Amino acid sequence: MPQPVGAIANRFLLCAIALFAAGGLVCPQFTSAEEKGSAEVTIQLHVMDESGQPIPGAHAVVAKWTGHLEPLGDFQPSDKNGQAELIFPYSDNYFYLVVRAESMATTSVYLHLDPKTASQDIEVTLRPVADSYVTVTADNRPVSGAEFSWIEFTENNGEKVVWRKEMAEALDMPWPQSDENGKLRLPPVPRDAVLDFKVIHPSYSQIRQEGKRIRDGEIATVALSPGVPVVVDLQIQNEEGSRLAEGTSVQVQMFSPGPSRGADDIIHPFLTSDGKIEFSASPVSYNVLKITTDNYFVSPTLYNLSTIPNPKLDLREAKDFSLPVKLLPKRKARGHVVGADGNGIQGAYVYASYPNTSPSDIPNSEDQDAQKIALTPGNWTSAGKGITDIDGYYELEAPAGILAVEVIHEGYFSDPTEIRFVWSGEYAEPFPNYVIHRVPKIRGKVIDQAGNPRPGILTRIRHEGRGDADPVAITDEQGEFVLKLLRIPYAAKSTGLETNLSVLAFDPASNQAGLSQFNVKDKAATKSLVVQLADKPTGWVLDHFHTAPTQEIDPLVVEEIEANKKKYAQGLPGNSVPDMRDGTWLNTEAKSLEDFRGKYVLLDFWFIGCGPCERDLPSVHAAYQAYQDLGFTVVSMHISGQPVEAVREYAQKHEMDYPIFVDGAAGTVTQAFRDLGVVGFPTYILLDPDGKIIHNDMVAVDYSLRMEKLELIHEAIHSGRKSPNATQ
Question: Which of 313, 529, 647, 712 has its CA 20 to 30 A from that of 188?
């Protein structure tokens, strides 16, 4: 069956978010070139011990996440009352408060901020540090030089704390290596916490262990095994024989989509020796290998995805893996983003990329081949990124030579989608001005066959392009709707934008529906659309375009889904799902999923800080609003890692009035749903009134609840669909 391109692209988005949740590749956050007019945030901190006594002389700092942890100034000491004040400028980043004290475990607290936040009072309880260690062996002998690549534990308030070596270095936190006896001491983590960790060594495969209670003394013994030797040869572009200085730190990010819960993922810095780094990978198939270092861009980044296959990253049968990469010096650049009127646009995200095949440090502008290379991850390497200030100016880092620059800003579009040019590498030469245009609001009316307005009708944008969450709306008493596109989707079968769009309208309570096509660049059409409803057969709303065939499914996507069916067999249609008891329910009197029997249930898995999850909220809310009187409900599950009050506050702010389940600190429900394929976010599962799975995106080829939840729910309700028998 044909599949909409958006559903195929969505699988890559889910992959990226899963990596973010694991602490790997993250949703992009940016720092402006010049933060003019940035509001300041004041944190009034109170530090105490477990008995409630203030801790004088504790030290605290606010750090922001911009792809790495960046402290905002020096650590500030607490006074005799355990109090400290921290002031920092607000920007569009994730912020963490890091607190440490002598003989106490270092902790971090995620700060829930928005542009209106002026101040927050925060209490932090520090726990005694444990004198703990892990014994590392291989072939029954102790191994020296091993270290943790990742540790995670849960604080008393239910918030998860994750540390990596590069974070520890940024915060001047000790990060030991195992000694000659194989004894690997823990960083300053709290006694009695439950610890998950990964141990890495250049000569062995990484290993993961979970659920270790922290106490004084040995908490675990790990036995390392040989892996696939990897050698990365770092060659500085156009400087033959020139190498990075001995001992330069080079960050490796290597991800596998396998079911090992990140055990095979490598996110760790290694030190150069003779211009190379050497480490060991697991004998699995990886889908991303990204290498970064200070002062240089590293090319290429390798991808092995359904749309960008690269067999080099399949190490299942490999004896070794050697990769030469090019280093291009980072240079500071500047530019200007303007609207059609020539005025600067604030808050636009700017990305620079350069071709993997760049022939020289400063290629000739006549090099037309590089100019024509398709702007895809397989052909181009990401350079720097930035965000425009109040006047539309930005700064970022880029290499000299051929560049492609793309600007993304909510409510705006550019056509063409990127500009390409040759840059000298000199700061005095700004990038060409980048012009963006406002995306028009789509306004219209839904009528019946007699021309009467129809209130309460679901409307949404449909297209064959590549995009994220498309807008939805329910018509008002006059049958009118307004749909706000965040941006015009990309064309799926060519470069540029997909400007031919449709509005699908359908009655939640019947099979009446209609479709109206328009060109988003036709300003007159976007102001006066009319969609006329008519009786349609059940399931008509799932026929995506009605006028043109959709793109055939990529065979690699089919292969991926077939593998998922085996990997996540418990998530196949017909099976039951784990119950939700070990946690907290909000907005409902329910105590478990069983309390919703007799209704169709959309399970919505998300977490605070997940950008795609937040962009999906309008469609989830529309589903609840439209179908709640038709034997349907939403159950929204926040995975473990945030306190209940933080989730409650977020839900109120975003008008999430449907039932919400917050997993407990132990994460038992989150863990249980991993076996069903809930490993990326957002993820959706649709249940029938008996509590059986009807649809699970991770094992579905035809349609996606991420993109077509409103239609799939409509079809289930009006066909009386029940789940098939479980297929193993």
Answer: 647
373 touches 380 (CB < 8 A): yes
Q: Write b or e for each residue in 47-72: b if 16 or more Cβ atoms lie within 10 A of its Cβ, otherwise e.
A: bbbeeeeebeebbbbbbbbbeebeee
Is the pLDDT confidence value at 584 over 90? yes
Helix 705-719 and helix 5-21, axial crossing angle in degrees, nearest 10 = 120
Provide the edge-to-edge strand list for the sheet that holds 331-338: 393-398, 331-338, 434-435
Q: How far apart, in whole angstroms, are the C-alpha atoms of residue 507 and residue 501?
A: 20
pLDDT digits (tens, 9 = 90+) for 476-488: 999 999 999 988 8
Amino acid present at 578:
P
Name the pTM for this structure. 0.81
Distance from C-alpha of 601 to C-alpha of 692, rounded to nearest angstrom? 10
pLDDT band at 170 (very low <50, low <70, confident <90, very high): confident
Of 353, 363, 296, the closest CA to residue 329 belongs to 296
Q: Would you state the pLDDT for residue 560? A: 72
Range in 54-58, 81-85, 640-644, 686-690 the model is least confident about? 640-644
Q: Yes or no: say if 42 and 119 are a contact pair by the CB < 8 Å rule.
A: yes
In order of their start, the domains of the chain are 40-125 (2.60.40.1120), 132-223 (2.60.40), 228-329 (2.60.40.1120), 332-429 (2.60.40), 442-542 (2.60.130.10), 552-719 (3.40.30.10)
Closest CA to 49 of 97, 110, 107: 107
